[in-house]
Amino acid sequence: MNISSIYHNLMEQVRSKDAQPDLKQLVSSLVEKVDSLESELASYKSLVKEQLDTIGLLNKKIFGYKSEKTHTESPETENIESVPSYIRTMSVDDAPVKNIRKNTHSPYRRPERRVYKEMEERIEVLTPDAEELKGAKFVRSEKTCRLYMIPARIVKVIYDRRIYAKDGKLIVPRLPYVPENFQKRHIEPSLMAGILANKFYYHIPINRQVAMLKNAGADIARSTLYDWCGEGIDALEGLYQTIREEVLKADYLNIDETTVSVIDEDAHHTKKEYMWGLIDTKNRLAFFDYDQGSRSKSVINNILQDYMGVIQTDGYSAYKNIGEDNSGKINRISCLAHIRRKFIESESNDPEHSREALDFIGKIYRLERFFRKKKFIPEKIREYRIRFTVPIFRKFKRWLDRYISNSQIPGESLIGRAVAYAHKEFDSLKYIFDNGEYRIDNNAAERLLRPTKLGLNNYLFFGNHKNAKRGAIIYTIVESCKLNNVNLFEYLKVVFSKEPKACETYEMFLPNKWKV
């Protein structure tokens, strides 16, 4: 029996007994109270559902599958049936997927044996014993390859300089060049390069390197290695500034920020601070920035103060109004991967609507993979995006407009927040149709920042803001070398060993122009 029927029954009883007005008022107030409690109960149920959704999302992030690929994006679906009909019906000359065949099971083919061409080789000729060779004739030669390892060694080189006198002047031979702040240390560029590469490329913390060096014959104190690291990174600051200037000349940048742990020297515990990363995918250069751990809008505004071009970011509010103060010299592209992530997170909350959205996004990603797989030039990618991606975008936009204020999707639910985020970020995706070099997501910046997390999983934190700034400098060098497949150890060894000349600049050391 509902509230309305109870109310009517009570009112009939009141009328039949000619009850006093205050009794009628009491019944009405009780009914209102019940309605209020039912409304409050419904709100609590909604709150409990939101909390359960949040708990489920956190469990998925901690213990669940990390990949964001959906069934529409898996490699197994990349056959002719998975291609949208509007591409399959194109002419053979125009179709961007004209060479895609049906996914048939081909017989297993053994991969080619690796030959290790870049590895140092040593040939040892083996012959039978002399007694066995009596009366024998040579038949053939058989070669067998085995890989050996030579452990690292630390060699102490003593420069015994022979000083001569001539015409009242001393003739003193010069020592091999090292940067000025190395001169009071017993360290040579190759050792400095090895320590920095081990820590920031291979993510080996200093305490483990102490043990490694001891096994290699050098019992060096941990505090000494920390000092060497700091001085080595300080010697790279000029190169860091040059890379930074080169990156900010690009007309398209991917930008993101990540958390780092830094010791608060006053409170004596770690605090969550932020490091920014910017990458120029076209010229294969990147740089990191750290400004007292701040994530405020002023930091990114200072970085992009004189920048003109297009940036691609996530939906963080600090990026939203960039360019307003400089007459629109900067345009921002949003990230489709972040939109997709919101709908993946809401799948457990509302599978039906989440999968509808993921289906639109999956089709867009499939087209992008076809364009990249066929290695189309940017002009061709832009043309195909306008012809085939724009219709999907329009359908997705109509879908978002329909559900942004729909009562079927509560605004505070995971699916409601996903729809709101996608609707808010959608218009900023339009710039991808201006240039085929622009990507549909900001994954390049996210990949750039990943090594900082791998490193901090091993060495845990930076000791202070100064060392965090040094981290930004060395990660700039490391990640720029990675983008250009440059051997970091050999690169740093040459950079530290090269004596600067008056007419030279750091441009000759840019990783994307580096030649051994």
UniProtKB/TrEMBL annotation:
Keywords: Coiled coil. The keyword Coiled coil applies. The keyword tRNA-binding does not apply. PANTHER family: BLL1576 PROTEIN, PTHR33678:SF2. Residues 187-469 form the Transposase IS66 central domain. Residues 27-54 form a coiled coil. This is IS66 family transposase. It comes from the Bacteria.
